[in-house]
């Protein structure tokens, strides 16, 4: 992990000396090589609680390894998606933007690989600063400042209780090592202390009720910001939640699960209802993330092997799918200059290949077998139903509404009236096809070999 961090710092140093003609090719090459080298060096063990590659409280196991790979895979993809938007800026602006993206990658590696709760907390919070810069500096509209405020205040509201709770735990246990917590059962009688630990990660996921920052951040963020937010940064909340519930598993089962499972199940259903009312393309995709991740939290709270597998599948599958949906939404926006669904219509009049990509990823978002989201939903829904048969109602509502807004999303963008912008064929760039292909490759890898994600 230290090696990966130094490699990222090396990429930042090379950015300083790049010129306008070779900055994108060099960045994409370096970040791609970083992924392939890390995939060779990082070793995966069969047990989720015995880490390998230990170095200064940084290690990998079956829980964080896939999220590290997801981060390393999607960072070059997000840079690839940003080329067209950033070429209108100066070379210094592009260098600053690229440096911020690499810093986010460094903080992600630290967060996912940390085996100390304090280091995990520091990496978790450190991603806030570069994300705010992305939204405030390269956002699409003036409302990006308001979106930045929302992101800051929601994050700080959850982070302060988490920090205080970690201090209390350290004072009682004399350590914050995840390995020692896993080997020695921790029984904390203070119910509020556990809630303080979890609230910051539930806000970052986010679950329904603490999600208001997410649509604003997604709508105003640049394409790379939206892809990183949806595909990686939201997964930090799910990862932190999984780490903490494995530590406080006794208290979670007896005190938290009976409350959080029905709340998240119905919260996911309500988020699906909200999706039906959205007219903005990016806002609709953002609210669908709230619905999916709410069920991920509900399933993971059961602390069974079945629900853990479903949670990990949802983290990875949703990360790929949501990133692809935002990438296609940006491709549409570059042609239509609007994200309004009523106007962004009739793309099949201009091209025949792009609607195929749109259909694949909307079906993935819907959870049609054998796409990875369907595997996650089978595990999660069955786990939630095993907790209470009453949850069948919320699951049925969510499934029906998700089918409605996902298929409506495809229909509205691909069919409809012809406008001046789609009367003539549009030449899509090879870069855009490569961008979507890099999302399809991991999707079909999981389809052909689901055991690639094991717990």
Automatic annotation (TrEMBL):
Q: Which GO terms describe its molecular function?
A: NADH dehydrogenase (ubiquinone) activity; NADH dehydrogenase activity; ubiquinone binding
Q: What is its EC number?
A: 7.1.1.2
What is the predominant subcellular site recorded for this chain?
A: mitochondrion
* Keywords, alphabetical: Electron transport, Membrane, Mitochondrion, NAD, Respiratory chain, Translocase, Transmembrane, Transmembrane helix, Transport, Ubiquinone
Membrane topology (UniProt) = Multi-pass membrane protein
Subcellular location(s) of the protein: Mitochondrion membrane
- Matches recorded under Pfam families: Oxidored_q5_N, Proton_antipo_M
Task: Give the catalysed reaction(s), semicolon-separated.
Answer: a ubiquinone + NADH + 5 H(+)(in) = a ubiquinol + NAD(+) + 4 H(+)(out)
Indicate the segments forming the NADH:quinone oxidoreductase/Mrp antiporter transmembrane domain, all copies: 114-402
Membrane spanning segments where?
A: 7-24, 63-82, 94-112, 118-136, 148-170, 190-214, 226-250, 256-277, 309-333, 353-372, 392-412, 433-453
Q: Which InterPro entries match?
A: NADH4_N, NADH_UbQ_OxRdtase, ND/Mrp_TM
How is this protein annotated for GO cellular component? Answer: mitochondrial membrane
Q: Which residues form the NADH:ubiquinone oxidoreductase chain 4 N-terminal domain?
A: 1-111
- Write down the superkingdom of origin: Eukaryota
Instruction: Give a GO biological-process term.
Output: electron transport coupled proton transport
Q: Which family, according to the similarity comment?
A: Belongs to the complex I subunit 4 family.
Which PANTHER family does the entry mention?
Answer: NADH-UBIQUINONE OXIDOREDUCTASE CHAIN 4 (PTHR43507:SF20)
This chain's function reads: Core subunit of the mitochondrial membrane respiratory chain NADH dehydrogenase (Complex I) which catalyzes electron transfer from NADH through the respiratory chain, using ubiquinone as an electron acceptor. Essential for the catalytic activity and assembly of complex I.
Q: What is this protein called?
A: NADH-ubiquinone oxidoreductase chain 4
Q: Which gene encodes it?
A: ND4
């Amino acid at each position: 992990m230290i090696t990966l961090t130094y490699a990222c710092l090396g990429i930042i140093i090379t950015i300083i000396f790049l010129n306008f003609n070779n900055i994108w090719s060099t960045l994409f090459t370096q970040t791609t090589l970083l992924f392939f080298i890390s995939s060779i060096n990082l070793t995966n063990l069969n047990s989720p609680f015995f880490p390998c590659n230990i170095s200064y409280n940084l290690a990998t196991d079956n829980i964080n390894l896939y999220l590290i790979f997801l981060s390393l895979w999607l960072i070059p993809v997000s840079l690839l998606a940003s080329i067209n938007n950033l070429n209108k800026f100066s070379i210094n602006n592009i260098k600053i933007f690229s440096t911020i993206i690499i810093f986010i990658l460094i903080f992600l590696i630290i967060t996912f690989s940390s085996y100390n709760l304090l280091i995990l907390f520091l990496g978790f919070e450190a991603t806030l600063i570069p994300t705010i810069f992305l939204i405030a500096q390269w956002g699409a509209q003036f409302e990006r400042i308001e979106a930045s405020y929302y992101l800051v205040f929601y994050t700080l509201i959850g982070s302060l209780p988490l920090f205080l709770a970690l201090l209390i735990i350290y004072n009682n246990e004399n350590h914050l090592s995840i390995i020692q917590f896993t080997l020695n059962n921790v029984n904390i009688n203070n119910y509020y202390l556990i809630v303080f630990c979890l609230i910051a990660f539930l806000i970052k996921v986010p679950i329904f009720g603490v999600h208001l920052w997410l649509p604003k951040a997604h709508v105003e963020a640049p394409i790379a910001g939206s892809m990183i937010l949806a595909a990686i940064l939201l997964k930090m909340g799910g990862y932190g939640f999984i780490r903490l519930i494995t530590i406080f598993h006794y208290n979670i089962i007896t005190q938290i699960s009976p409350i959080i499972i029905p709340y998240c199940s119905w919260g996911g259903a309500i988020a699906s209802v909200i999706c039906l009312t959205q007219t903005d393309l990016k806002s609709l995709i953002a609210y669908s993330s709230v619905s999916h991740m709410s069920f991920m939290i509900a399933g993971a709270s059961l602390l069974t092997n079945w629900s853990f597998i479903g949670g990990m599948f949802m983290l990875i599958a949703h990360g790929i799918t949501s990133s692809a949906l935002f990438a296609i939404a940006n491709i549409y926006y570059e042609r239509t200059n609007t994200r309004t669904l009523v106007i962004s219509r009739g793309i099949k009049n201009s091209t025949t290949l792009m609607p195929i990509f749109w259909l694949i990823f909307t079906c993935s978002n819907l959870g049609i077998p054998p796409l990875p989201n369907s595997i996650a939903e089978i595990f999660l829904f069955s786990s939630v139903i095993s907790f209470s048969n009453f949850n069948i109602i919320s699951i049925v509502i969510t499934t029906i509404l998700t089918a409605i807004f996902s298929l409506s999303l495809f229909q509205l963008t691909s069919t409809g009236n012809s406008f001046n912008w789609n009367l003539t064929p549009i030449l899509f760039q090879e870069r855009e096809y490569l961008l979507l292909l890099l999302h399809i490759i991991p999707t079909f890898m999981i389809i052909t070999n689901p055991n690639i994600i094991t717990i």
